[in-house]
Amino acid sequence: MTNPAPKQQSAGDEPSEDYISDRLYTIPNIICGIRLVGSVFLILIAYLDRAEMFLWFFLFLAMTDWVDGKLAILLNQRSVLGARLDSWADAALYAALLVGMIMLHGAVLAGELAWIVPALTSYAVSIVTGIWKYHRWPSYHTRAAKTSWFLVMLGTIGLFTDWSLWPLRIAFVAGTITNIEALLITIISPSWRVDVTSVYHAWRDNTAS
Which of 82, 98, 132, 167 falls 20 to 30 Å from 49 in CA-CA distance? Predict the structure, then answer.
């Protein structure tokens, strides 16, 4: 049995009945905080040139992204604040991952700019557009974003174990597609929303309203 999709709200609305009030100290929010703070330590580990520790600690932090979402549903602790905090923690984690990759495998990544630049550029455009339109950080958590999360983990393993660069390349392509979809959701949606499944759902909800 699937969980019903959470109701959406406009930028000025209170959270819908599917969301608790924006309490700060919930278990999912605390886990997000761990991921946010852990991202700083991830860069420190890279600075110390501990590649294996970096990989394992990144995988641990990445798994907290899956855990906090599941717990938010199971414990009925979903909130608009939690969705925004999750997006900030994700951004910090992936920024730390990129910095760490450059520090530990910069020579390899220098040859992968054709894959990296589109992903970073599309992400920046998506975030800036969301902030410009809604004055808030976009927090869509689409299915494509969840798929990209898994692919990034595989790509990181491939890079750090010298297995293959193709999983990482595929992850960058998936990230670019995810960012473009997020941009389209921002363009389509007249008001700020959280937890949008896909651009189709954004279009459907917009035309139905």
Answer: 167
